[in-house]
Amino acid sequence: MDIQGLDYNTQRTSLHLPEYGREIQQMVEQCKQLPNREDRQRMAEEIVAVMGRLVPQKRKAAEYQQKLWDHLAMISQFELDIDWPFDIQQVQQQIAGPQTVPYSNGGNAVRHYGKILVETIEKLKEMPAGDERDELVRLVANQMKRDLYTFGHGPASNERVANDLAQMTDGAVQLDLSTFKFEPIEIAAPVKAKKKRK
Question: Tens of pLDDT along 130-166?
């Protein structure tokens, strides 16, 4: 349906700062199109005055005028060619946002064991046989079982821990389940709510 003079918000351009409304944005667009720089400057000052009247409760806030001019710069998408009374470079940097921090999951296929445990298993591959290695195998195997139980990735069976450990160490560590004893996992009983007496 196309009725002349009737348009919907979905058909209009999106608002850059919705709190000021479409009228302010239209005023800024008109200001950008003025050919004379002095006229643009005068109109920009008037727009800032109108913006200040729209939000009177914040007039007493520190740096209120600078905030209005920053908002004017954002509404105009930094395309308004005037003499800015305040530096708008900082606002441009804020809008750009921080650089994304690269996050590496390391390609760990068994994330439920955690990065530290996987790194420890990597060290197990290189360790020579002995009491120190046997103790580390015991600690790692028990932690693997706790992690499986805690994070619920299938059954936390002794066989699964032995298979995962053998697979992750490329066969360097083979648990003999007939002699290896896992520590019992303590399960906390659910807390029952007390019944209220009448």
Answer: 999 999 999 999 999 988 888 876 777 889 889 999 9
Question: For residues 36 and 81, what is the distance between their CA atoms, to the nearest angstrom?
Answer: 10
Average pLDDT over residues 40-62: 84
First to last CA, the chain: 66
How far is it, in rounded angstroms, from Cα 174 to Cα 140? 13
Nearest CA-CA partner of 167 in 128, 115, 110: 110
What is d(CA 148, CA 137) in angstroms, rounded to the nearest whole number?
A: 16
* CA within 13 Å, CB half, 17: 21
Residue 88, CB-side half-sphere exposure with 13 Å CA sphere: 20
**Which residues are CB-contacts of 123 (< 8 A; sequence separation ≥ 6)?**
136
The answer to whether 59 touches 67, Cβ cutoff 8 Å, is no
